[in-house]
Amino acid sequence: MSQTEGARLFREAWIAGVRRHFPGEPKPGYVTPWEDTPEWERRAAGSVYQQVHHFIEISGGYATRLTREQKSRYVATCWTAQMFKHFEDPKPGYVADWPELPEWQRETDADIFEAIEKALV
User: Fold this and answer.
1) Spatial distance between the Cα atoms of 85 and 94, rounded to a whole number of angstroms
2) For tag attachment on the chain, is the N or C end more exposed, with fewer CB atoms within 10 Å?
3) 84 φ, ψ (degrees, to nearest 5)
């Protein structure tokens, strides 16, 4: 899967997770379709996809045995690094540590990891 295809998979898994886990009506930016997603966000999604893909690959596939929390933490940490890459002074909420993230976001991040896992099998 190319980085662009991986980025799209990431974005689609994000949107599906937000729709599944977000309490109430999500902000429009949370569910913006791929075609309207800003270029920096597309690049960030592709980078995190590649990191998760590589992580699963170098673990010999055993990363699938991680807990949902571990999977979520990994995605969140990779995404935080992208926020620092793309923003000189990101908002604190963009770079919050995993325990400070809302439950819906932690669950969505785990869903993203699992969507990438599924695509690799």
Assistant:
1) 12
2) C
3) -65, -35
Please tell me the total count of domains within the chain: 1
- pLDDT value of position 39: 96
- Residue 52 domain-assigned (yes or no): yes
Cα separation of 91 and 30, whole Å?
Answer: 16
Residue 105 lies in a domain: yes
Question: pTM of the predicted model, to two decimals?
Answer: 0.95
31 inside domain: no
Range of the domain at 50: 3-23+39-120
Domain membership flag for residue 49: yes
What amino acid occupies position 2?
S
